[in-house]
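Listing S7. Sequence submitted for prediction.
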Amino acid sequence: MDNDIRYDEERIGMIFSDIRRYVKDLDGLGIQGIGDLSDKRNFYAASMVLFSLLNRVFDLGSEMAFAHNLGIPATYRDIFVLLQKQGIIGNDLAHDMIGLVTYRNLLSHEYHGITGKTLFDLTKKVDCIRQFVDMMQDRIQHNQKE
């Protein structure tokens, strides 16, 4: 492993575990269309799961930035800018992940204004989260083998 890269394996392991659980929980809600969110239980469950998922994904990004000595991000957007500048993620994924920051902030600060459409649109973005998580997991495994 590169001497300059130091992962907090316990913390990152918990983050991966939480992310897997939240994705499974979201999949378990079976949201296939906006209509599925007309049921308030689904709407609020999806909102909370997505909020929790985004927070843990951002935690993962922060841990990666810290482990790679990229500095401490001042904002959630900075996490993905730092990772992109270092070549840890590509431009397209960085753009997608930065876009998720807006959704996270809506869920956190403008909860009363979230619509079924906004929430459904966010559920369709889980694939970029999966891509990001897979890339971070691969990177950690690769660096630990060196």
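Caption to Listing S7: primary sequence and predicted structure tokens for the chain studied. The CA atoms of residues 51 and 104 lie 6 Å apart. Residues 9-145 form a domain with the Four Helix Bundle (Hemerythrin (Met), subunit A) fold (CATH 1.20.120.580).
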